[in-house]
Design brief:
Blueprint lengths: L1 E3 L21 E5 L3 E3 L1 H12 L3 E5 L11 E3 L4 E4 L5 E6 L4 E3 L4 E4 L5 E7 L9 E4 L2 E3 L5 E5 L8 E2 L1 E2 L8 E2 L2 E4 L2 E3 L5 E3 L1 E2 L1
Parallel strand pairs: 1-2, 2-4, 3-5, 4-7, 5-8, 6-9, 7-10, 8-11, 9-12, 10-13, 11-17, 12-18, 13-19, 14-20
Antiparallel strand pairs: 15-16
Length: about 190
């Protein structure tokens, strides 16, 4: 299932690609810049809990926006179901998980989480967890870039006239809690 557009409003959306007797499908959302607030998180949580994996992917197509993806402060994306599902957040540039945001498996199923920044081959894009919580209940957690979890890295960059004040590292994790149980953790950052 694909939901595309420069701006998306998924309030009240009910999406299911669950397959109780087979492999669950995927719901793709692909706007330009996106802030996942409580309304968007509720729709994503509902899909995950119903057995549907979700990918949110920003772009910069015909836009002056950089293609950033933010999970807003205090927002919760929760998987309360029994199926093993995956949440993939892919950004043309940066992924920011703000303070108090929580991405968690709260049911019996695992939640694999992929954070993929800087989608272009040589794209710069940072991943920043700032006071966030990620709990996967045995699902893997992968932070990377260029759509390549085994070789791609989230890449740092400088902005403005110099790097002394405006440097953004590839991956930064501040005051955050990451719990995966038996799930593997892979963090790939450069710069």
């Amino acid at each position: 299932i694909e939901t595309s557009g420069r701006f998306l409003d998924i309030s009240g959306a009910r999406v299911s690609a669950a397959a109780p007797l087979g492999v669950a499908g995927n719901w793709l959302l692909d706007p330009t810049d996106l802030v996942i607030g409580s309304v968007e998180a509720a729709g994503i949580s509902s899909a995950l809990s119903g057995g549907t994996s979700v990918e949110v992917r920003t772009s910069d197509v015909e836009s002056e926006e950089p293609g950033d993806l933010t999970v807003a402060e205090g927002v919760e994306i929760l998987h309360s179901g029994a199926a093993d599902v995956q949440l993939t957040l892919s950004a043309h540039r940066d992924i920011l998980i703000d303070s108090g945001a929580r991405i968690a498996a709260t049911g019996t199923g695992s939640l694999a989480v992929d954070l993929n920044a800087g989608l272009e081959e040589e794209g710069e894009g940072q991943i920043r967890l700032n006071g966030a919580t990620i709990a996967t209940n045995g699902g893997s957690l992968r932070l990377y870039g260029q759509t390549d979890p085994s070789a791609g890295s989230a890449k740092g960059r400088c902005e403005g006239s110099g790097c002394s004040d405006d440097y953004f590292p590839g991956v930064s994790i501040f005051g955050s809690t990451i719990t995966t149980g038996a799930g593997a953790i892979s963090i790939r950052g450069d710069g």
